[in-house]
């Protein structure tokens, strides 16, 4: 039984790795070839970044696995709040800093 589980997890790692590579190459191609306008490009890169986050969480960090999935969700929500606070605070500070000059 563990052989089958091991083989299945190896397939998941390889699949996650391939998806991650594709999700990394797509924004690079979009930026280098100037395929989209600036606003659409930024939105596309952000959307692909969110997909990349989900791939990392499910394929490599096993968010859906575990005995206590509630703890995983709580840690994920806390991490999201921390990241949002840091990014929003940084943008807020940078916007005020650019108005001073």
UniProtKB/TrEMBL annotation:
Xref: Pfam families: COX4_pro
Source organism of this protein record: Ectobacillus funiculus
Keywords carried by this UniProt record: Cell membrane, Electron transport, Membrane, Oxidoreductase, Transmembrane, Transmembrane helix, Transport
Similarity remark: Belongs to the cytochrome c oxidase bacterial subunit 4 family.
Protein name according to UniProt: Cytochrome o ubiquinol oxidase subunit IV
Membrane-protein topology: Multi-pass membrane protein
Superkingdom, taxonomy of origin: Bacteria
Compartment annotation: Cell membrane
TM segment ranges: 12-35, 41-63, 75-95
Keyword Membrane listed: yes
């Amino acid at each position: 039984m563990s052989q089958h589980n091991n083989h299945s997890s190896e397939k998941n790692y390889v699949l996650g790795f391939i998806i991650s590579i594709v999700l990394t190459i797509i924004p690079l191609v979009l930026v280098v070839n100037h395929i989209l306008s600036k606003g659409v490009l930024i939105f596309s890169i952000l959307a692909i970044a969110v997909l990349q986050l989900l791939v990392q969480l499910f394929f490599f960090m096993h968010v859906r696995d575990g005995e206590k999935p509630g703890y995983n969700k709580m840690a994920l929500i806390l991490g999201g709040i921390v990241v949002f606070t840091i990014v929003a605070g940084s943008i807020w500070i940078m916007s005020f800093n650019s108005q001073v000059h």
